[in-house]
Predict the 3D structure of the following.
Amino acid sequence: MSDLLPPWPLLSAFMLASLVLAVTPGPGVFYILARSLSQGRRHGMASVAGVALGNFGNAVGAALGLAALFAVSSLAFTVVKIAGAAYLVYLGIQAIRTPEAAPGDALPSPQSLRRIFRDGFLVALLNPKTALFFAAFLPQFMAPQASVIGQSVALGALFVVIAALSDTAYALAAGWIAPRLGRLGGLRRAGRYLTGGAFIGLGVLAALASRRDATP
């Protein structure tokens, strides 16, 4: 594993850059915040796990050349982009139509947590900009004499871990705030519409994004 990572000075620069990029809000962070605020900490942590797995899928895809395909094929990029945007809009509509649980209600069922995990995974995986980002960012820290695929996967996994830690902080903070907002009565309904509106807005932005905006 050590030969797949750069020397410590370069590795520390990679970790610092990854942290700065990870804390910058993107679709995954907004998804996690929306779930945590509207449904609590457990749902937020399930969304963190789903987003992390989706991001890792994009890192592996970039290592295997998926990013190169997106870079040269407008059709492939557009198909994946529109699918991801449509899924975000679908989540927004579902959030508006389905009221969140009231304080004191039963704990979320395993099935609901699996659904939140699945949705987070798809939100992250169906963002082709993430694969393009990995293809542009990771090579800056790779050694030419080592395996390109191995280094891409190793660095991608490290980035995903850093991002997951950052996302966990977002989820815990939002989960701490959520019960306090829930006690404010009318804000709970407004929160449902804000959550749905955020997802729909993200879907619209994702649909309008170009390949040049290659940040996760």
Residues 148-182 form the longest helix (35 residues). Residues 96 and 192 are 6 Å apart (CA to CA). Residues 26-208 form one domain. The chain has one domain: 26-208.
